[in-house]
């Protein structure tokens, strides 16, 4: 299976989008989807300072990374349940 964007070997197949992507192109695809959703639904304004509750898992860390990559200057706060 080849990456639809660059033609290299694909690492992931996204059946909902009928496509396959390599690791680099998947990250670009994912970041673009998140930033477009934020813009489309006016979730975060450029003047806002988002705060991400960081558990240390891949979901919260990915969100924090993408918000900062999009220039939104997000801060993180670590929370630990049950400790």
Describe the overall structure.
This protein is an alpha+beta fold and 83 residues long. The protein has helices at 23-40, 58-69; strands at residues 12-14, 19-21, 51-54, 75-78. It folds into two domains: 1-43, no CATH class; 45-83, no CATH class. Helices cover 36% and strands 17% of the residues. Strands 1-2 form a two-stranded antiparallel sheet. A two-stranded parallel sheet has the order 3-4.
If you average the pLDDT, what whole number results?
A: 93
First-to-last CA distance: 45 Å
Strand content: 15-25%
Order of helical and strand elements? EEHEHE
**Biggest beta sheet attributes:** 2 strands, antiparallel
**How many separate domains make up the residues?**
2
In DSSP terms (H or I, runs of 4 or more residues), the helix count works out at 2
Radius of gyration of CA atoms, rounded to a whole number: 15 Å
Helical content class: 25-40%
Q: Structural class from helices and strands? A: alpha+beta
| Number of E strands | 4
Low-pLDDT segments? none
Spatial sequence of strands, sheet with the most strands: 1-2
Explain the layout of strands and helices.
Blueprint: E1 12-14, E2 19-21, H1 23-40, E3 51-54, H2 58-69, E4 75-78
Parallel strand pairs: 3-4
Antiparallel strand pairs: 1-2
């Amino acid at each position: 299976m080849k990456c639809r964007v660059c033609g290299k070997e694909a690492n992931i197949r996204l059946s909902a989008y009928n496509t396959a992507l390599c690791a680099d192109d998947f990250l670009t695809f994912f970041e673009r989807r998140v930033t477009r959703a934020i813009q489309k639904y006016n979730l975060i304004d450029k003047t806002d300072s988002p705060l991400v509750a960081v558990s240390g898992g891949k979901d919260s860390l990915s969100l924090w990374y993408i918000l900062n990559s999009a220039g939104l200057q997000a801060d993180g706060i670590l929370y630990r349940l049950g400790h």
